Amino acid sequence: MIVKKVELHNFRNYENLELSFDSSRNVFIGENAQGKTNLIEGIYLCAFARSFRTQNSANMVMLDRPRASVTVDLVSEDMDKSISVILDRTGKKMIKKDGKVIRKTAELLNNLVVMVFSPEDLRIIKDSPEKRRNFINKELSQIRPRYYECLRLYNEALRQKNSMLKDNLKNSKIDENMLDIYDLQLAKYGTEIVKYRRNFIRILSERAAEIQKSISGGREDLEIRYLCSLSEENQYDALVAARDRDLYSGHSSLGPQRDDMEFLINGKDAKKYGSQGQHRTIALALKLSEIGIARDVIGENPVLLLDDVLSELDEERQTFLFQEIEDVQLFITTTDVNNRILKKMPKGNVYSVKSGTVFKNTLK
Ligand SMILES: Nc1ncnc2c1ncn2[C@@H]1O[C@H](COP(=O)(O)OP(=O)(O)OP(=O)(O)O)[C@@H](O)[C@H]1O
């Protein structure tokens, strides 16, 4: 899949920007706070209908403007597609595909498949379980829209159940029938979520192990384990059995909202015993595996957004990354102008970003 054109209007610090891409290697260079990440965020918005760095979509609207719009034209499976997202200051958004309004995010999700790799991803091993669940959720939602739908419905039922449990702590009033309805819904969607996650983590573990081995010169065996709070068998019974505890604590104690992943190197927990270098290798292995899984499911390469991450990887890991993603369209942001990165992509386009304007220079 290839992004051909990006248009930003009143989006972050871009009043009007139109950029067409004739290379699959695109490097955006600029000092801090010039708009490099904003550009990547715009592309991401057309993939997920949300940002990767704010929950509040109004933040993306240029200050003092009523609305923002982003359009990405792409080619996927030899077909031209155009995705637009229009945001307004009140937080409302409208999504269009080829000029027609799309009402459900699930219908947008695998039109433009993008992966972001940012310095934050390098911390995934040490970060909170929530960050690791986000990683799983983002990838699976893009390639399996049904997963996104299950997650949405699960989270809605969980929100309602938790609010009821919390009220019960204050008023000691519980509607047993309603509680049962919530548990039935949680078990139904939770079972599907766990099946998707188990399968995804199994494939992720196999792929990432190969990459880890290769980068470490055969020294490191990586295993990724799924830490599942509630297995796919008899989720409803387990939820019913946990009711007294949930009523006492005021929240739902079991389910996919508690899941996590564990990383083992040569049988030892990488979180506790791994070096910083090993953590970086795992993060890189995860990202490359994610790309490979997406390619197998959607039948073509996703687009990769490398947001300020290259300078965090040493020469060896950078070289490995570029080798593995030779056919993937790249959008790279960097403040580093020492040409190390540029040498790795002689046919790429380089853009200078300054205060919401972008100039193109083609490398010889
Ligand atoms: N809603 C908005 N309206 C106008 N300007 C905005 C808005 N949101 C962010 N900005 C501006 O965008 C700039 C930050 O852009 P961005 O995050 O893309 O920086 P960057 O070039 O990636 O920098 P760094 O290398 O530090 O990450 C800042 O100047 C900020 O004031």
TrEMBL record:
It is found in: Cytoplasm. GO terms for biological process: DNA replication; DNA synthesis involved in DNA repair; double-strand break repair; SOS response. ATP binds at G30, E31, N32, A33, Q34, G35, K36, T37. GO terms for cellular component: cytoplasm. Its main location: cytoplasm. It comes from the Bacteria. Belongs to the RecF family. The RecF protein is involved in DNA metabolism; it is required for DNA replication and normal SOS inducibility. RecF binds preferentially to single-stranded, linear DNA. It also seems to bind ATP. This is DNA replication and repair protein RecF. The lineage of its organism: Bacteria, Bacillati, Bacillota, Clostridia, Peptostreptococcales. The gene is recF.
